[in-house]
Write a structure and sequence with these properties.
Helices cover 65% and strands 0% of the residues. The N and C termini lie far apart (55 Å). It is elongated, with a radius of gyration of 22 Å.
């Protein structure tokens, strides 16, 4: 295989890895700040870090205000709406995991293609095809479930963009 083709695929691999790890792309901006520990800017009560998104039973309004002030975030009741938020959160975690796995498999298939032996090239085309089809199915399933959850809960994160 020509050296220029190997360099081209090497650059593509580096680009894919940089997309996989965006935290490595901005180390200089973060180094300008002095942090005493890695968890200084991390709020462990943040709903995006929790696996379970609901906080508890439905509370009366007066207790709800006090509880939200204590928690530091909006209190989410464990009712049907809370269940749908939990389902959406778990699906979002699975999508992130699926994207990471797809990037890894695309990178592996690219490596097989770079090696240049006919058996590896055939295997890489097979991996590209299967992972591509699986990735499209995964995103389609996510979109369908996301729409059903919007219909069930009556809320959308994109309502502002849609003019509602």
């Amino acid at each position: 295989m020509k050296t220029s083709i190997k360099i081209k695929y090497g650059i593509a691999l580096v680009f894919a890895l940089s997309m996989l790890m965006p935290s490595l792309a901005v180390p200089l901006a973060a180094s300008a700040q002095t942090l005493t520990s890695p968890t200084d800017n991390v709020n462990l009560n943040d709903s995006s870090l929790k696996i379970i998104t609901c906080d508890g039973p439905t509370l009366p309004p007066d207790i709800l205000k006090t509880t939200e002030a204590t928690l530091g975030h909006t209190y989410v009741s464990c009712d049907f709406y809370g269940l749908m938020q939990q389902v959406q959160h778990l699906i979002d975690i699975a999508i992130v995991f699926g994207v990471v796995v797809a990037i890894g498999l695309f990178s592996y298939a690219g490596y097989l293609h770079i090696t240049g032996t006919p058996a590896n090239i055939t295997k890489s085309y097979s991996i590209f095809r299967k992972v591509g089809i699986g990735f499209i199915i995964m995103l389609s399933a996510w979109f369908i479930v996301y729409q059903v959850i919007i219909w069930l809960t009556g809320s959308s994160q994109f309502a502002v963009l849609l003019g509602k």
